[in-house]
Design a protein that fits this description.
Layout lengths: L11 H12 L9 H5 L5 E6 L27 H8 L4 E7 L9 H9 L4 E5 L8 H10 L2 E6 L13 H13 L2 E4 L6 H10 L5 E3 L13 H9 L6 E5 L16 H11 L4 E3 L13 H9 L7 H16 L2
Parallel strand pairs: 1-2, 2-3, 3-4, 4-5, 5-6, 6-7, 7-8
Protein backbone atom coordinates (compact mmCIF):
# COMPACT_ATOMS: atom_id res chain seq x y z
CA UNK A 1 0.00 0.00 0.00
CA UNK A 2 2.46 2.60 -1.17
CA UNK A 3 0.29 4.54 -3.60
CA UNK A 4 0.49 8.31 -3.04
CA UNK A 5 -2.60 10.25 -2.11
CA UNK A 6 -3.14 11.68 -5.59
CA UNK A 7 -3.72 9.70 -8.81
CA UNK A 8 -0.66 8.08 -10.32
CA UNK A 9 -0.84 10.15 -13.52
CA UNK A 10 -0.54 13.49 -11.71
CA UNK A 11 1.84 14.22 -8.86
CA UNK A 12 0.84 16.26 -5.80
CA UNK A 13 3.42 18.86 -6.76
CA UNK A 14 1.90 19.31 -10.24
CA UNK A 15 -1.53 19.82 -8.73
CA UNK A 16 -0.17 22.23 -6.15
CA UNK A 17 1.55 24.24 -8.86
CA UNK A 18 -1.68 24.40 -10.85
CA UNK A 19 -3.55 25.55 -7.76
CA UNK A 20 -0.92 28.17 -6.98
CA UNK A 21 -1.37 29.73 -10.41
CA UNK A 22 -5.08 30.00 -9.76
CA UNK A 23 -4.79 31.52 -6.31
CA UNK A 24 -4.27 35.10 -7.53
CA UNK A 25 -5.47 37.70 -5.11
CA UNK A 26 -8.16 35.64 -3.37
CA UNK A 27 -8.79 37.15 0.05
CA UNK A 28 -10.28 35.87 3.29
CA UNK A 29 -14.07 36.13 3.41
CA UNK A 30 -15.61 37.71 6.49
CA UNK A 31 -17.48 35.50 8.95
CA UNK A 32 -21.21 35.40 8.28
CA UNK A 33 -23.80 35.76 11.02
CA UNK A 34 -24.42 32.02 11.30
CA UNK A 35 -20.71 31.29 11.68
CA UNK A 36 -20.59 33.61 14.66
CA UNK A 37 -22.70 31.05 16.53
CA UNK A 38 -20.64 28.08 15.36
CA UNK A 39 -17.74 26.66 17.36
CA UNK A 40 -14.59 28.52 16.37
CA UNK A 41 -12.18 26.60 18.59
CA UNK A 42 -11.60 22.95 19.30
CA UNK A 43 -12.02 21.72 15.72
CA UNK A 44 -10.71 18.35 14.56
CA UNK A 45 -8.68 17.95 11.39
CA UNK A 46 -9.67 14.43 10.31
CA UNK A 47 -6.76 13.80 7.94
CA UNK A 48 -3.13 14.88 8.11
CA UNK A 49 0.24 13.19 7.72
CA UNK A 50 3.52 13.51 9.60
CA UNK A 51 7.08 12.37 8.98
CA UNK A 52 10.54 13.08 10.28
CA UNK A 53 13.87 13.77 8.58
CA UNK A 54 15.46 11.46 11.17
CA UNK A 55 15.57 8.44 8.86
CA UNK A 56 18.10 6.65 11.07
CA UNK A 57 15.62 6.40 13.92
CA UNK A 58 12.61 6.01 11.62
CA UNK A 59 13.84 4.45 8.37
CA UNK A 60 11.87 4.75 5.16
CA UNK A 61 10.24 1.67 3.68
CA UNK A 62 11.82 -0.12 0.76
CA UNK A 63 11.29 1.79 -2.47
CA UNK A 64 11.36 5.24 -0.86
CA UNK A 65 14.28 7.65 -0.59
CA UNK A 66 14.88 10.84 1.36
CA UNK A 67 14.26 13.02 -1.70
CA UNK A 68 10.73 11.62 -1.92
CA UNK A 69 9.84 13.46 1.29
CA UNK A 70 8.36 16.78 0.16
CA UNK A 71 8.58 18.82 2.30
CA UNK A 72 11.69 17.33 3.88
CA UNK A 73 10.12 17.51 7.35
CA UNK A 74 6.58 17.63 8.70
CA UNK A 75 6.71 16.66 12.35
CA UNK A 76 3.87 16.75 14.91
CA UNK A 77 5.19 20.11 16.10
CA UNK A 78 5.21 21.53 12.58
CA UNK A 79 1.66 20.27 12.05
CA UNK A 80 0.45 21.85 15.28
CA UNK A 81 2.09 25.14 14.35
CA UNK A 82 -0.23 25.23 11.33
CA UNK A 83 -3.35 23.87 13.02
CA UNK A 84 -3.53 25.62 16.39
CA UNK A 85 -3.67 29.24 15.12
CA UNK A 86 -6.71 28.21 13.06
CA UNK A 87 -8.61 26.86 16.08
CA UNK A 88 -7.81 23.17 15.55
CA UNK A 89 -7.23 21.24 18.77
CA UNK A 90 -7.06 17.62 17.57
CA UNK A 91 -5.86 15.87 14.43
CA UNK A 92 -6.35 12.40 12.99
CA UNK A 93 -2.97 11.19 11.75
CA UNK A 94 -2.97 9.03 8.63
CA UNK A 95 -0.02 6.66 8.35
CA UNK A 96 2.30 8.00 5.67
CA UNK A 97 3.20 5.76 2.75
CA UNK A 98 6.93 6.47 3.27
CA UNK A 99 6.80 4.09 6.25
CA UNK A 100 4.50 1.49 4.67
CA UNK A 101 3.43 -0.98 7.42
CA UNK A 102 5.70 0.46 10.13
CA UNK A 103 3.26 2.63 12.08
CA UNK A 104 5.75 3.38 14.88
CA UNK A 105 6.34 7.07 14.13
CA UNK A 106 2.61 7.80 14.09
CA UNK A 107 2.06 5.77 17.27
CA UNK A 108 4.90 7.60 19.04
CA UNK A 109 3.28 10.94 18.20
CA UNK A 110 -0.02 9.67 19.59
CA UNK A 111 1.66 8.63 22.83
CA UNK A 112 3.68 11.84 23.16
CA UNK A 113 0.61 14.03 22.53
CA UNK A 114 -2.04 11.90 24.19
CA UNK A 115 -5.55 13.04 23.40
CA UNK A 116 -4.38 15.38 20.63
CA UNK A 117 -3.79 12.85 17.87
CA UNK A 118 -5.97 10.02 16.66
CA UNK A 119 -4.63 7.46 14.23
CA UNK A 120 -5.35 5.56 11.02
CA UNK A 121 -2.84 2.76 10.44
CA UNK A 122 -1.67 0.85 7.40
CA UNK A 123 -1.29 -2.92 7.73
CA UNK A 124 -0.53 -5.83 5.43
CA UNK A 125 -3.83 -7.53 4.65
CA UNK A 126 -1.95 -10.69 3.59
CA UNK A 127 0.05 -11.08 6.81
CA UNK A 128 -0.73 -13.70 9.44
CA UNK A 129 -2.22 -12.64 12.76
CA UNK A 130 -4.24 -9.89 11.13
CA UNK A 131 -6.88 -9.80 13.85
CA UNK A 132 -4.38 -9.47 16.68
CA UNK A 133 -2.52 -6.77 14.79
CA UNK A 134 -5.71 -4.75 14.42
CA UNK A 135 -6.70 -5.24 18.06
CA UNK A 136 -3.22 -4.28 19.26
CA UNK A 137 -3.32 -1.08 17.22
CA UNK A 138 -6.78 -0.33 18.59
CA UNK A 139 -5.36 -0.63 22.13
CA UNK A 140 -2.83 2.05 21.13
CA UNK A 141 -5.54 4.44 19.96
CA UNK A 142 -5.90 3.55 16.28
CA UNK A 143 -9.51 3.71 15.10
CA UNK A 144 -9.18 3.13 11.38
CA UNK A 145 -7.17 1.37 8.67
CA UNK A 146 -6.25 2.85 5.33
CA UNK A 147 -7.19 0.78 2.29
CA UNK A 148 -6.73 1.53 -1.41
CA UNK A 149 -6.30 -0.33 -4.69
CA UNK A 150 -2.64 0.59 -5.33
CA UNK A 151 -1.74 -1.25 -8.55
CA UNK A 152 -4.67 -3.68 -8.34
CA UNK A 153 -7.67 -3.56 -10.65
CA UNK A 154 -10.53 -1.82 -8.86
CA UNK A 155 -12.91 -4.71 -9.51
CA UNK A 156 -10.60 -7.10 -7.62
CA UNK A 157 -8.85 -5.06 -4.92
CA UNK A 158 -11.43 -5.85 -2.23
CA UNK A 159 -11.63 -9.58 -2.94
CA UNK A 160 -8.82 -11.02 -0.81
CA UNK A 161 -9.44 -13.10 2.32
CA UNK A 162 -7.42 -10.61 4.32
CA UNK A 163 -9.57 -7.71 3.18
CA UNK A 164 -12.72 -9.60 4.16
CA UNK A 165 -11.16 -10.32 7.57
CA UNK A 166 -10.42 -6.62 8.05
CA UNK A 167 -14.00 -5.66 7.25
CA UNK A 168 -15.41 -8.34 9.57
CA UNK A 169 -13.23 -7.23 12.46
CA UNK A 170 -14.01 -3.61 11.64
CA UNK A 171 -17.66 -4.36 12.32
CA UNK A 172 -16.92 -6.23 15.56
CA UNK A 173 -14.46 -3.66 16.94
CA UNK A 174 -15.93 -0.45 15.42
CA UNK A 175 -12.78 0.14 13.40
CA UNK A 176 -13.21 2.14 10.20
CA UNK A 177 -12.03 1.15 6.76
CA UNK A 178 -10.62 4.41 5.40
CA UNK A 179 -10.66 4.27 1.61
CA UNK A 180 -8.30 6.33 -0.54
CA UNK A 181 -9.92 5.87 -3.92
CA UNK A 182 -10.81 7.39 -7.24
CA UNK A 183 -14.49 7.51 -8.27
CA UNK A 184 -14.36 4.22 -10.18
CA UNK A 185 -13.83 2.36 -6.89
CA UNK A 186 -17.13 3.54 -5.42
CA UNK A 187 -19.19 0.76 -7.00
CA UNK A 188 -16.99 -2.06 -5.59
CA UNK A 189 -17.06 -0.30 -2.22
CA UNK A 190 -20.84 -0.28 -2.22
CA UNK A 191 -20.77 -4.04 -2.77
CA UNK A 192 -18.62 -4.36 0.35
CA UNK A 193 -21.07 -2.19 2.28
CA UNK A 194 -23.87 -4.58 1.34
CA UNK A 195 -21.74 -7.54 2.42
CA UNK A 196 -20.52 -5.93 5.67
CA UNK A 197 -23.29 -3.46 6.58
CA UNK A 198 -22.01 -2.84 10.14
CA UNK A 199 -18.44 -1.96 9.17
CA UNK A 200 -17.64 1.76 9.37
CA UNK A 201 -16.36 3.12 6.06
CA UNK A 202 -14.76 6.54 5.58
CA UNK A 203 -14.25 7.86 2.05
CA UNK A 204 -11.19 10.12 1.83
CA UNK A 205 -11.12 13.42 -0.08
CA UNK A 206 -14.61 13.21 -1.70
CA UNK A 207 -13.31 10.06 -3.49
CA UNK A 208 -11.14 12.57 -5.40
CA UNK A 209 -14.15 13.80 -7.33
CA UNK A 210 -13.07 17.02 -9.06
CA UNK A 211 -9.37 16.11 -9.26
CA UNK A 212 -9.43 16.93 -12.99
CA UNK A 213 -11.09 20.28 -12.32
CA UNK A 214 -14.65 19.10 -12.96
CA UNK A 215 -17.17 17.58 -10.54
CA UNK A 216 -18.73 14.93 -12.75
CA UNK A 217 -22.38 14.28 -11.99
CA UNK A 218 -22.16 10.50 -12.39
CA UNK A 219 -19.28 10.32 -9.90
CA UNK A 220 -21.15 12.41 -7.37
CA UNK A 221 -24.24 10.27 -7.86
CA UNK A 222 -22.21 7.15 -7.05
CA UNK A 223 -20.78 8.75 -3.93
CA UNK A 224 -24.19 9.93 -2.73
CA UNK A 225 -25.57 6.44 -3.34
CA UNK A 226 -23.38 5.22 -0.49
CA UNK A 227 -25.48 7.34 1.88
CA UNK A 228 -28.03 4.49 1.98
CA UNK A 229 -25.50 2.59 4.13
CA UNK A 230 -25.71 3.94 7.66
CA UNK A 231 -22.03 3.56 8.57
CA UNK A 232 -20.49 5.36 5.58
CA UNK A 233 -18.80 8.73 6.16
CA UNK A 234 -17.10 11.16 3.77
CA UNK A 235 -14.13 13.43 4.36
CA UNK A 236 -14.62 16.96 3.09
CA UNK A 237 -10.93 17.48 2.43
CA UNK A 238 -7.95 18.13 0.13
CA UNK A 239 -9.39 21.35 -1.24
CA UNK A 240 -5.98 22.30 -2.68
CA UNK A 241 -6.30 19.41 -5.17
CA UNK A 242 -9.94 19.60 -6.27
CA UNK A 243 -12.06 21.79 -8.51
CA UNK A 244 -10.42 25.14 -9.22
CA UNK A 245 -7.70 24.26 -6.68
CA UNK A 246 -7.72 27.84 -5.40
CA UNK A 247 -8.83 29.60 -2.22
CA UNK A 248 -11.45 30.36 -1.10
CA UNK A 249 -12.53 26.98 -2.60
CA UNK A 250 -16.18 28.02 -2.75
CA UNK A 251 -16.54 26.28 -6.12
CA UNK A 252 -16.69 23.06 -4.07
CA UNK A 253 -19.76 24.35 -2.25
CA UNK A 254 -22.35 22.67 -4.48
CA UNK A 255 -20.68 19.28 -4.02
CA UNK A 256 -20.53 19.78 -0.25
CA UNK A 257 -24.19 20.80 -0.21
CA UNK A 258 -25.20 17.71 -2.17
CA UNK A 259 -23.28 15.50 0.26
CA UNK A 260 -24.77 17.28 3.27
CA UNK A 261 -28.25 16.68 1.87
CA UNK A 262 -27.49 13.00 1.12
CA UNK A 263 -25.52 11.94 4.20
CA UNK A 264 -26.42 14.59 6.74
CA UNK A 265 -23.65 16.66 8.30
CA UNK A 266 -23.30 14.06 11.05
CA UNK A 267 -21.58 11.75 8.54
CA UNK A 268 -19.26 14.36 7.01
CA UNK A 269 -15.93 15.43 8.48
CA UNK A 270 -13.59 18.25 7.48
CA UNK A 271 -9.88 17.66 6.96
CA UNK A 272 -6.87 19.29 5.34
CA UNK A 273 -4.58 16.52 4.05
CA UNK A 274 -1.60 18.40 5.45
CA UNK A 275 1.17 19.10 4.70
CA UNK A 276 -0.11 19.39 1.12
CA UNK A 277 -2.73 21.96 2.12
CA UNK A 278 0.02 24.34 3.23
CA UNK A 279 2.22 24.27 0.12
CA UNK A 280 2.46 26.31 -3.09
CA UNK A 281 0.48 29.29 -1.80
CA UNK A 282 -2.31 27.32 -0.10
CA UNK A 283 -3.05 28.01 3.57
CA UNK A 284 -4.38 25.95 6.46
CA UNK A 285 -6.90 28.53 7.64
CA UNK A 286 -8.36 28.87 4.15
CA UNK A 287 -9.28 25.19 4.32
CA UNK A 288 -11.18 25.33 7.60
CA UNK A 289 -12.82 28.65 6.75
CA UNK A 290 -14.62 27.07 3.79
CA UNK A 291 -16.68 25.07 6.29
CA UNK A 292 -16.56 27.48 9.20
CA UNK A 293 -17.66 30.68 7.46
CA UNK A 294 -17.88 30.61 3.68
CA UNK A 295 -20.84 28.33 2.89
CA UNK A 296 -24.08 30.04 3.86
CA UNK A 297 -26.19 26.89 3.46
CA UNK A 298 -24.46 25.25 6.42
CA UNK A 299 -26.22 25.70 9.75
CA UNK A 300 -24.32 26.10 13.02
CA UNK A 301 -25.20 22.48 13.75
CA UNK A 302 -23.84 21.40 10.38
CA UNK A 303 -20.57 23.20 11.04
CA UNK A 304 -20.21 21.68 14.48
CA UNK A 305 -20.76 18.18 13.12
CA UNK A 306 -18.35 18.61 10.21
CA UNK A 307 -15.67 20.32 12.28
CA UNK A 308 -15.91 18.38 15.54
CA UNK A 309 -18.47 15.73 16.36
CA UNK A 310 -18.32 13.39 13.35
CA UNK A 311 -14.55 12.91 13.56
CA UNK A 312 -14.75 12.78 17.35
CA UNK A 313 -17.25 9.91 17.22
CA UNK A 314 -15.40 7.92 14.54
CA UNK A 315 -11.77 8.48 15.57
CA UNK A 316 -11.66 9.54 19.24
CA UNK A 317 -14.29 7.39 20.94
Amino acid sequence: MTQPELPLDRSRRELLQAGALALGAASLASFDAAAADAPLEGAIDAHSHIWTPDVKRHPLAAGFKVTDMQPASFTPEELQAEARPCGVARVVLIQMSYYRFDNSYMLAAMRDHRGVFGGVAVIDEHASGLGETMRDLKRQGVRGFRIHPAAQAVDRWLSSEGMAAMWRLGADERLAMCALVNPEALVPLEAMCRKFPETPLVIDHFARIGIDGTVHAADLDNLCRLARHAHVHVKISAFYALGKKAAPYTDLGPMIRRLRDAFGAERLMWATDCPYQVQMGHAYCDSIELVRSRLDFLTPADRRAMLITTAERVFFS
